Amino acid sequence: MKPLVLTSLQAANADPSIRAIADYLARTLDLPVTFADAPRWQDREVLFDRGEAQMAWLCGLVYVEKRDSHAAPIELLAAPVMDAPHYEGRPVYFSDVVVRAESPFHAFADLRGARWAYNNTGSHSGYNITRYHLATLGANGDFFGRVLESGSHQRSLALILAGEIDASAIDSTVLETELRLRPELAGQIRSIERLGPSPIPPWVLRQEVSPTLAAEIRHCLVEMRNDPAGAALLAQAQMLRFAPVTDSDYDPIRRMAALGERVFL
pLDDT of 126-139, one tens digit each? Predict the structure, then answer.
């Protein structure tokens, strides 16, 4: 049987959870499932666009751009619901505006003239929502004194800790995983504002996968919480469950992108 190849454009600290879920899908569906964990997310995206990976966990902005441009024939599978009170049991996430613990900043408005980093231009949580937020303030990229592209949320955190930048918008799920893995961070950084909520990055499938298999994968993800082994994996990933989602659930990202187009970072 031809293996199903799964990849992810999420932060590297999510890879262990994705690998565990891939193994769970393989066992539950009696199907060979492999995780394509190329070191760079750009290489993983190429694999998905070429059809060498059929399933992916995409950023919401990447999803809407691919869907709307027909760059890749894709369909939604499901989206995670994270296990923390501020997610309110919904498939949403936030962008936490993070600074060093000892910094003088206490709100986004304080960052005028500050040094800012975003992870990459394809990111909703780091780039798109920053442009949107600036647009709602009637500001442009020159709101900040200096802006750079770090390459990843984890790199942005490292730059904050090193004092090379003042602040960045960090995907709340990435930040929570980092804090779980590195508890000492809690005393070194703080969040001064929370942007969002936004529709959380979805799990998607290329449409050449048979409708029967697509339905089986979707059912397996949504029902994971009702299986003890699946529920244990979700808990390890700081998830409550997978929720069914539709294309219209990602319209807020489309609206934020449209408004943010006028802002240049």
Answer: 999 999 999 999 99
